[in-house]
Amino acid sequence: MDFFNKIGKKVSQTYDATAEKTSKIAKEAKLKMKINENKSDIKQLYKEIGKKVYEKHVREENIDIRKELEEECTKIDVLSSEIETCLKSILELKERKQCPKCHSEIDLDAAYCPRCGEKQPDVENKVTEDIIEDLENSEVKPENQTEKEIVEQKLDN
Fold it and tell me: Which residues does residue 105 pair with via DSSP β-bridges, in sequence order?
């Protein structure tokens, strides 16, 4: 009977893991579709801007970018912001992050970018936080109390 209980638990765990992965894949697909829609809308806005500029050129009129193109430029800014949000969400689903220098996808715990070699600031902060937490949770002998204080002061600076 114990054998069947173990199999049941294993099947249940496998199902849960598969359901979670499927959910992540579906969310990622929706986000990618949204990104593609936004990119398409941005291309259409670029065409509209170009058309307005060219029409003014043909009529030999001056174009006031602020007044005549502000609406399209604002729409492009909003769509670009949505794309960035979607990309960040995809990285979170994949449990990855983006290198601030070369924008490559890298592991969350990577200290350096494998593509460009840039040092990742988040890892350094995480390590410092872990050290501080360890210090706070550790029992320090009275004779070592001053050493603990010195280390804490150095970490705070």
Answer: 98
* 120 class by beta-carbon count within 10 Å (0-12 exposed, 13-18 middle, 19+ buried): buried
Query: How many helical (H) and strand (E) elements, i.e. helices and strands, does the chain have?
Result: 4, 2
**119 and 100 in contact (C-beta within 8 Å)?**
no
Handedness of CA 51, 55, 58, 60 (dihedral sign): negative
Task: Inform me whether the pLDDT recorded for 147 exceeds 80.
Answer: no
Q: Which two tokens stand for residue 146?
A: 């001053």
Residue 62: which residues within 8 A CB-CB, separation 6 or more? 56
Side-chain-side CA neighbours of 114 within 13 Å: the count stands at: 7
Q: How many residues does the chain have?
A: 157
Neighbours of 113 (CB within 10 A): 21
Report the candidate in 47, 29, 37, 44 with the shortest Cα–Cα distance to residue 82: 37
Q: Specify the pLDDT at position 5.
A: 82
pTM of full prediction above 0.90: no
- SS3 of 121, please? helix
